[in-house]
Amino acid sequence: MTYDILTALAGFALVSSITPGPNNLMLMASGANFGFRRTIPHMLGIGIGFTLMICLVGAGLIGVFDAYPVSHTILKVVSVLYLLWLAWRIANAAPPEQGQSSGKPFSFLQAALFQWVNPKAWTMALTAITLYAPDRSLAAIGLVALVFGAINLPSVSTWTVLGLQVSRVLASPAKLRAFNWTMAALLVATLYPVLYGMA
């Protein structure tokens, strides 16, 4: 891989990792509701889970969509339903002082598994492999995964920090509830490209 292509890959990884999407909006909500430390497993689950996803997509899963186009539609339906459920959970998250058991941040495993139903993650992985590892060689796939792994975690962590900063102005349960509903609405809005593509 030439320097120019590597630079382009790094730029793509940065822009796609740091722009709004389901992962980042959920991290912002988690940072505001649970703080940075309790959100670390969520951040690590995204970073490591997505890196593994790139490896597996490059190693052959990308061919499943070519061979069985219906699998792409099934993935979209499952993704939409799961993201709607997550939006409902965020909207109804209990303020920390209420101590309700429903108020738990994502675990490492939950965040890692979430990548497989995250439409943006699929788009990023498929695009990265198609553009930057077209020969599907192990070296090319490994390099794409390495670049994303190095850039993704710091990028998504900024959203947790942003949520933590926002939490300082969410002093009342009413403000936190309004913030959670806003985050839930934005999460649902990320489904627009998926739903538009299914129409």
For this entry, give a set of tags.
mainly alpha, single chain, 199 residues, 8 helices
Number of structurally distinct domains: 1
Helix % is over 70%
What percentage of amino acids are in beta strands? under 5%
Content-based structural category:
mainly alpha
Radius of gyration, whole Å = 17 Å
Largest sheet: none
Runs with pLDDT <50, length 5+?
none
Name the overall outline.
globular
Number of strands: 0
Instruction: Give the rounded overall mean pLDDT.
Output: 86
Distance between the termini: 38 Å
H/E order of the elements?
Answer: HHHHHHHH
Oligomer: single chain
Number of helices: 8
Molecular structure report:
- It is a single chain.
- This protein is mostly helical and 199 residues long.
- The protein has one domain.
- It is built from eight helices and no strands.
- Helix 1 runs parallel beside helix 6 and helix 2 packs antiparallel against helix 6.
- The longest helix has 46 residues.
- It starts with a helix and ends with a helix.
- The model has no long low-confidence stretch (mean pLDDT 86).
Helices and strands in order:
Blueprint: H1 3-18, H2 22-67, H3 70-91, H4 108-114, H5 119-132, H6 138-167, H7 173-189, H8 192-198
Helix pairs in contact: 1-6, 2-3, 2-4, 2-5, 2-6, 2-7, 3-7
Question: What's the gist of this structure?
Answer:
Helix content is 80%, strand content 0%. The protein is mainly α and 199 residues long.
